[in-house]
Amino acid sequence: MQMGMKLATAVVLVSGLSVTSAMAQDCTPKHEFETIEKGKLSVALTNTPPYSQEEGGAIAGIDGDLVKLFAKENCLDITYEIFTYPAAVSAVQSERADIAIGGFYRTAAREKVVTLSTPVYLDQIAVASVDGLDTVDQLLGKKVGTVEGYAWVLEMEETFEGSGTYPSSLNLAQDLQAGRIDAALEGFGAAVVLNKGTNVKVKLLKADDRIGATTNASQTSFLLSKTNEAFVSAVNATINEHRSQGVIAKTLETYSLDPSAADVGEGRVIQ
């Protein structure tokens, strides 16, 4: 952005879409690329705090804040629609949205239909418990739960006798807060949001080979079109720049996540 740029913001509704207007004057974009609609960045938003959410008629959350900064740096207004996870993938694949956000894991299945941006941050595994437990050994003999479908379910069941799964993060948090289980294994961000304001403490689960996610946490990405190479290059360059400048770490801290999640390592996908 040029120094001295005049910038005003407004939020308006256009044909049912939410639009954040930058109304920038004398703005020079940092990168050159085309979007679906000239001058606008179309976002497929999943309402999954703290990763992404709608707040005050605009996108917010970790991903939302990072995408807003990208749009500002490239003189773009933001339009968005709210989707489920599968529908957001489809929106990008069919070029109804430029980008999908919401802490999307880098999976082989998604990579087949959309472009995965360079990793943005790690979704680190947390332990939520009243006692502030943070090691596998401390969890032995405890009643432990997690959510169906998480990558660590089998390892949890093998390591913690009598452990069980829940259909959703909300169900898991409710049983933990009611004292029906001793500890919950959860993505760090979801654990922070769902246990906020309670006596439950959220800690990173310390590295232990018995739970592989402690040493090889899932990476998140923005989802991008397979046909817009210039846009993909701009997004990836921006992610790398924001990481080196400490922007991603600071954004994670803003939403009560550990800033170490910004250190993603080499890109990888979940099979």
Q: Care to describe what's here?
A:
This protein has 271 residues and is α/β, with parallel strands linked by helices. It folds into 2 domains: 157 residues, Periplasmic binding protein-like II (D-Maltodextrin-Binding Protein, domain 2, 3-Layer(aba) Sandwich); 90 residues, Periplasmic binding protein-like II (D-Maltodextrin-Binding Protein, domain 2). Helix content is 29%, strand content 25%. The chain contains 9 helices and 15 strands. The strands form 3 sheets. Strands 1, 2, 3, 6, 7, 8, 9 and 15 form an 8-stranded mixed sheet that branches. A 5-stranded mixed sheet has the order 12-11-13-10-14. It has a two-stranded antiparallel sheet with strand order 4-5. The N and C termini lie far apart (39 Å).
How many E strands?
A: 15
**Radius of gyration using CA atoms only:** 20 Å
Question: What's the CATH class of the largest domain, please?
Answer: Alpha Beta
Contiguous helical run count? 9
Going by CATH, what is the homologous superfamily of the largest domain? Periplasmic binding protein-like II
Structural class: alpha/beta
Output the CATH topology of the largest domain.
Answer: D-Maltodextrin-Binding Protein, domain 2
**What's the multimeric state?**
single chain
Summed up:
With 271 residues, this protein is α/β, with parallel strands linked by helices.
Features:
271 residues, alpha/beta, D-Maltodextrin-Binding Protein, domain 2, eight-stranded mixed sheet, five-stranded mixed sheet, 29% helix
